[in-house]
């Protein structure tokens, strides 16, 4: 019987696990604070930011909402980030991507103080991750590791195929999986949309992680019996005249062969949001020099 890995349940455990750390910070007069910066009128981006703010409020993290007109000059965004960097009451900064076309994403990422970069995308934080000394693990890769742990999936010595090479998921996840850590020591193959004979690479894996952004690219014919499948993809497609969400994995055919699999929605997505809260609490602890217990 295939184990359906419940990301909502694991995310709830992560959030519950933050309560002790937040209480410790509160006793020291510190309220973890996350600033979300939205420079977009895209409904999806607005929804994502609203959900993150709601998550913060539910666990006792202060949510600071900053909205900037998408037509404003780039300087307004960079001045806002600079002000947040300088604000001692702000522990984490998240600029919702994408930003308008007249601003480079990479310039925004580099403008954020690495100590407040709770997404883990600043070059300094990326470099520390690659060196095996991460401060903030990027939220989605960290969430994937938590899901594997919760499902008792052993990565030590396992063959893991990551389908996707993005800076947000594929690359940092591959780096975390090969490191000498509690959830590492794997042998990792990184594939992408131009990989020749992708199915040959995925069929030999003990764990397949799909994060390529192609709807239902990986199906049951591409995995071996007993494979663990983690689906990071979230794609909106039209079916029978209705819009629906699907992952990068064809769930039904893959479920028939997998030993464990994440659904979409309800798999990796909730974990990404939970690990953002985790990183914000960690940032508050580091900046206030108040030790807390974070697993």
From TrEMBL:
Domain Tetrahydrofolate dehydrogenase/cyclohydrolase NAD(P)-binding: 138-287
Origin superkingdom: Archaea
Keywords assigned by UniProt, alphabetized: Amino-acid biosynthesis, Histidine biosynthesis, Hydrolase, Methionine biosynthesis, Multifunctional enzyme, NADP, One-carbon metabolism, Oxidoreductase, Purine biosynthesis
Gene Ontology cellular component annotations, sorted alphabetically: cytosol
SUPFAM superfamilies tied to this protein: Aminoacid dehydrogenase-like, N-terminal domain, NAD(P)-binding Rossmann-fold domains
Pfam families: THF_DHG_CYH, THF_DHG_CYH_C
Entry protein name: Bifunctional protein FolD
Source organism phylogeny: Archaea, Methanobacteriati, Methanobacteriota, Stenosarchaea group, Halobacteria
């Amino acid at each position: 019987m295939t184990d359906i890995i419940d990301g909502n349940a694991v995310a709830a455990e992560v959030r519950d696990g933050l309560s002790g750390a937040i209480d410790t910070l509160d006793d020291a007069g510190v309220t973890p604070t996350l600033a979300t910066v939205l420079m977009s009128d895209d409904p999806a981006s607005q929804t994502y930011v609203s959900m993150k703010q709601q998550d913060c409020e539910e666990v006792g993290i202060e949510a600071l909402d900053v909205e900037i007109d998408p037509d404003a000059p780039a300087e307004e965004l960079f001045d806002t980030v600079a002000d947040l960097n300088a604000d001692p009451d702000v522990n984490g900064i998240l600029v919702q991507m994408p930003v308008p076309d007249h601003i480079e994403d990479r310039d925004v990422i580099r403008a954020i103080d690495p100590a407040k970069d709770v997404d883990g995308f600043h070059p300094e934080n990326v470099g520390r991750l690659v060196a095996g000394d991460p401060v903030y693990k990027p939220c989605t890769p960290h969430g994937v590791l938590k899901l594997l742990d919760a499902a008792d999936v052993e990565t030590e010595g396992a063959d893991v195929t990551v389908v996707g090479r993005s800076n947000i998921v594929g690359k940092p996840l591959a780096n975390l999986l090969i490191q000498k850590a509690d959830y590492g020591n794997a042998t990792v193959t990184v594939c992408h949309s131009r990989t020749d004979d992708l199915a040959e690479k995925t069929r030999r894996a003990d764990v397949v992680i799909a994060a390529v952004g192609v709807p239902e690219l990986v199906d049951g014919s591409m995995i071996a019996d007993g494979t663990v499948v983690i689906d990071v993809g979230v794609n909106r497609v039209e079916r029978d005249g209705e819009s629906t969400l699907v992952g990068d994995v064809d769930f039904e055919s893959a479920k028939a062969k997998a030993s464990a699999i994440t659904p979409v929605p309800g798999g990796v997505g909730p974990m990404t949001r939970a690990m953002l809260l985790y990183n914000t609490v960690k940032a508050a602890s580091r900046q206030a020099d108040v030790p807390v217990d974070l697993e």
